[in-house]
Write a structure and sequence with these properties.
eight-stranded mixed β-sheet
Length: 315
């Protein structure tokens, strides 16, 4: 069935001058054709059912053909409607893809990472120039916090988490070992574990362990059987890097997390007078968010982290 008096393009008319229906009519038609319901299409498009119905009628009048057969409580595409559905669906998909590519090309390139303050200041930041040097167009945002952020809600691409090995998520960068460290000068008075009783304990306060000042020492104390260790005095810090800085300055003994402090040991600024470290049964793991799957720079950053960890272990 044809609608009379509809305006039609002449077959001889050049394609470039053929009038196309407005885009909003195409969107309403695509939704109605896919749903086979003006009501469901209206809900999807946040319009009224009558508005969608009018737009379909306008489109049919513009084309000069019926696109739907209106049956009792049902819509069925006509042959012309099927042809238009395939063309409109393909065109809208191409338009969406092109829009996404254009937006991606003009959007700033960013990688957002969350990790602990200790990992950020002692391991990541000293190496970060190697990534930014090879990716000068990428804006790297580091959130250093003890809070475990929800990656999706916080719009974070990559997380480096310190977790028990048994509960680690994502690829492991390295497992952690712990050992008391101090300055070379202070090491002269630290020959055996019992000597710790004469020195200052450098420790970190954790929000959920305020009553346990040696929580960061616990893995090493457990291995050494020193559960009742008492030291001459205690200096408490809110950030691990500050406790490490105090140890370098000779103010006391800090529990060294390796390999975070390996470079300070190579430089001779910190030493381990009580021997090798003990495994803490914890490790650093790389976790990527769902949004990172569409961010090539974030995926490259996660791969760069793994390569840096492997290089550090070989060294």
């Amino acid at each position: 069935m044809r609608i009379e008096n509809a305006k039609k393009a002449s077959p001889a008319q050049p394609q470039s001058t053929v009038d196309l229906p407005p885009l909003e009519l195409m969107r309403s038609f695509e939704a109605a054709a896919r749903r086979l319901s003006f009501t469901l299409a209206a809900t999807e498009l946040h319009l009224t059912q009558s508005a969608v119905s009018r737009q379909i009628q306008q489109l049919e009048a513009s084309l000069g053909v019926l696109l739907f057969e209106r049956r009792h409580r049902a819509l069925v595409l006509t042959e012309a409607g099927g042809v238009m559905q395939r063309a409109v669906t393909d065109s809208l998909e191409r338009l969406r893809d092109a829009t996404a590519r254009v937006r991606a090309g003009s959007a700033p390139r960013q990688v957002a990472i969350t990790t602990t303050p200790g990992f950020a200041s002692l391991w990541l930041i000293p190496r970060l120039a190697r990534f930014t040097g090879s990716h000068p167009q990428v804006d790297v945002r580091v959130s250093a916090t003890l809070e475990v952020l929800d990656l999706e809600r916080s719009r974070v691409d990559v997380a480096v988490r310190l977790m028990p090995v048994s509960r680690g998520k994502g690829p492991a960068l390295f497992e952690e070992s712990v050992v008391p460290l101090c300055s070379p000068a202070l090491a002269k008075s630290l020959r055996k574990p019992a000597d710790l009783a004469n020195l200052t304990l450098l420790t970190v306060e954790y929000p959920d362990h305020s009553e346990a000042p040696t929580i960061d020492w616990e893995p090493w104390l457990k291995v050494m059987g020193l559960h009742d260790l008492r030291m001459k005095s205690t200096l408490r810090f809110t950030q691990y890097a500050d406790a490490v800085g105090a140890a370098v300055a000779g103010q006391g003994v800090v529990i060294g997390r390796l390999p975070l402090l390996r470079e300070l040991m190579r430089e001779g600024r910190l030493v381990a007078p009580l021997g090798e470290g003990a495994a803490s049964q914890r490790g650093y793991f790389v976790e990527t968010s769902r949004r990172a799957a569409g961010n090539r720079d974030a995926l490259e950053f996660a791969q760069w982290l793994r390569e840096e960890a492997e290089a550090a272990q070989r060294a």
